[in-house]
Specification:
The structure is a homodimer. By secondary structure, the first copy, chain A, is of the alpha+beta class. Helices cover 23% and strands 28% of the residues of chain A. Chain A has helices at residues 42-51, 94-102, 145-158, 171-175, 200-205, 233-246, and strands at 55-60, 65-70, 73-75, 84-90, 106-118, 126-136, 139-140, 177-183, 187-192, 210-218, 222-223. Chains A and B meet through strand 1, strand 2, strand 5, strand 6 and helix 3 of A and strand 1, strand 2, strand 5, strand 6 and helix 3 of B. Strand 11 (222-223) of chain A pairs antiparallel with strand 10 of chain B, so a sheet runs across the interface. Chains A, B: Its EC number is 1.-.-.-. Chains A, B: Residues 1-34 are annotated as: Disordered.
C-alpha cells in the first residue's frame, strides 16, 4: 500500500524556460459541457502528455472519421505554436497518406482513466479521468536533425533515456517513417477526480457509494527469446520508478493491491 | 506471480445463439498495414469490447474531427446489424447534438495496451496491443425498454451485475441522457503480441531486447466520504476477479509485480 501523492509530480520533460501561455480557447477547444472540470493549466496538459503511452488520433477520411491508436511524444520547446506533439507512422499507412495528400486538421486525444465512480443511482455513475484534446494541422517533419530528435523523443516517451542506448537509425529506416508535428496551441484539458455526487434522497437511503481506482502498471521486463543480455539499467529503473510516474493526478483514491 | 492464461477467456456476455458472421471487410475497415496482425474473428472482437472501460469516438465536426473518450457497452444480440455497441452522452453535449443534427458516421475505437516492445533498434520498437475499430451510423435509441436495457448494460459494463442493485432511473434522468446505438457490422480488430522482431545484425551485436508488460488493474474500493454502508458483494467480487478479466489476451508476457 502506498501513500498517494497529493499534488502533481514534475513531468519527465524539463520545464519551459519562460512561462507557457495559458491554454488557448478557440471555439474548437472551448469546453462546453462540465466547464468546472476543465483546467486552463498548460503545466497539467504537459504532465498528462509527457506520461502518455497511447493517444487516439482522429482523421477525416472524406466520408467518415477514423480513430487510430498511436504513440505521442511531447516536446514543450518544439518549433510549433504552443510546443509540439510528435506522432509517427509508416509512410505507407493509409492515414499518413491521407494527411500528406489533403493537409486537413487532426484531433489527438489522450485519456488516462483513474477510477470508476460508483454512485447510488445509475445517472450519477461516472469515471475519474484526465483527458487532453489537441486539434491542429500536422506538419511533416523533414529529414534532418528535427526528425532524428523527434524519433529519439518517441523512444524516450516509452522508456526515458532509452534512445541513447540504441544504434542510430539508418537512412532507409528514417525514410520509411513519417513523423508528424502537431502544434499544441489549440488544446483543452478536462479531468474529474473524487467522490460520486449523489442526490440527497439517495444518500439518505443508505446505499454504498465509492470509487474503484484504476491504474496502469508496468510488469517486470520479459527477455525476448533470442536475448542473452541482462536487462539494462534504464529499463530496470523505469519499471521500478513506474509507481511514481503513473500515479500522477490520481488523488487520494489510489491504493495498490 | 501469476501463470498467464494461454487462451482468451470467455467474455462477460453470453455467446450468441447462432454462429456470428465473420468480421465484414468493407473498404473502410479492411486492414491495409500489417495485415498479419488483423484477425477476422468476431469472438475476439466481442471479448475486447466486453471488457472495455474506455472507447474513443471520432466525430466529423464539419471542419475538423474531434475524438472524445466515452464508455462503450456491448450487446452482441442487439438489434443492429452485427450486434450493437451502445454509447451515451448528455443531450446537451456538442458532439451528441452534432450527431443528432447531421446523422453522419462515427468511428469508435477501443485500444488495450498490453506491452512495451523494446527492440535492439529504434525502428523495431513497438507496442503489444489489441485494437477494435468500428465505423457506423449511430441510431438514437428511443425512450422505452431498449433504452432502459442499454443504460443497464452501460452500468454493468463498469461493474458486472451492478445495475440490478440501483433504483430505476427517473423519467427526467432518462430524458437527459442520449443513448446511441452503433452497429457492429463494419469492424476490424488488430493486435500484436510477443517479442520484438529485430534485424539479424542487431541480434548478433548482443544488445538486450524484451517486453515490458502493461496492465490495467483495479484497486480496492474507496468509500465515498458520505458513505456508511459496507462495500457490496458485486463490487468486492469484481475487483477480486479483475486479474482474470483484465489479463485476457496478454500472452506469456504478463507478470504481476
Amino acid at each position: 500500500m502506498h501513500t498517494a501523492p497529493t499534488s502533481i509530480v514534475p513531468a519527465r520533460t524539463a520545464p519551459p524556460l519562460q512561462p507557457a501561455p495559458p491554454l488557448q480557447s478557440t471555439p474548437r477547444t472551448t469546453l462546453t459541457r462540465g466547464r468546472h472540470r476543465g483546467i486552463e493549466d498548460r503545466d497539467a496538459l504537459h504532465d498528462l502528455l509527457a506520461q502518455a503511452l497511447l493517444a487516439h488520433v482522429g482523421i477525416d477520411m472524406g466520408t467518415h472519421p477514423v480513430v487510430l491508436p498511436c504513440l505521442p511524444a511531447l516536446d514543450i520547446e518544439g518549433p510549433d505554436e504552443g510546443g509540439t506533439l510528435y506522432l509517427h507512422g509508416s509512410v505507407g499507412a493509409v492515414w499518413v497518406r491521407r494527411l500528406l495528400a489533403d493537409g486537413s486538421d487532426v484531433c489527438v486525444t489522450v485519456t488516462e482513466l483513474d477510477g470508476l465512480v460508483l454512485a447510488r443511482s445509475a445517472t450519477h455513475h461516472s469515471m475519474n479521468y484526465r483527458c487532453a484534446v489537441v486539434v491542429g494541422r500536422p506538419r511533416v517533419v523533414p529529414e534532418g536533425p528535427e526528425k532524428v530528435r523527434a524519433l529519439d523523443l518517441l523512444v524516450d516517451q516509452v522508456v526515458p533515456g532509452r534512445a541513447m542506448h540504441l544504434r542510430p537509425s539508418t537512412r532507409k529506416e528514417m525514410a520509411a517513417t513519417c513523423v508528424l508535428a502537431v502544434p499544441l496551441a489549440e488544446a483543452s484539458l478536462k479531468m474529474r477526480a473524487g467522490d460520486p455526487v449523489d442526490d440527497e434522497d439517495d444518500v439518505a437511503a443508505g446505499g454504498w457509494a465509492g470509487v474503484v481506482p484504476v491504474q496502469r502498471v508496468l510488469g517486470d521486463p520479459v527477455d525476448a527469446a533470442d536475448n542473452e543480455a541482462p536487462v539494462p539499467a534504464h529499463v530496470v529503473r523505469h519499471v521500478a520508478d513506474d509507481d511514481g510516474v503513473r500515479r500522477v493526478g490520481m488523488g487520494d483514491d489510489v491504493q495498490r493491491r
